[in-house]
Amino acid sequence: MNEMITITRAEYDRLREAAENLADFEAYSRAMAANEESIPAAAVKRMIGGESPVRVYRELREMTQTALAKVSGVNRVQIADIEAGRSKGSIETMRKLAEALRLTIDDLV
Q: In angstroms, rounded to a whole number, what is the distance separating the alpha carbons of residues 89 and 87?
């Protein structure tokens, strides 16, 4: 049997917002249970805006280009070129940077 219920638009909007909040909470709970690193929204916005993931993650790790160069074995000038978009970096270079930043290569490309 099909039953129909009529509610006000305000009640519909309230229920819809509550469902979206619940979905957000469930996604957050799954992420926390997986014990994965969270990334600040500001950092995500920087990357979406076109900023180099290498620069964003390096700054999140509170590293200078020189410190990253030392840990990764990649020349500092090459890091600067990647961050400025003048170079993409080879797969090997990106692997070294990802390892030094404690990321996967997918996080950087």
A: 6
The two three-digit tokens of residue 71, written as one number: 């840990």
What integer pLDDT is reported at residue 28 of this predicted model? Answer: 79
3-state SS, residue 6: coil
Tally of CB atoms within 10 A around 55: 19
Put simply, whether the predicted model's pTM sits higher than 0.90 gets the answer no
The residue behind tokens 């992420």 is 31
Residues of the chain with confidence (pLDDT) below 50: none
User: What is the DSSP annotation of 33-74?
Assistant: HTTPPP--HHHHHHHHTT--HHHHHHHHTT--HHHHHHHH--
Q: What DSSP element (H or E) covers 16?
A: helix 9-33
41-108: what CATH class?
Answer: mainly alpha
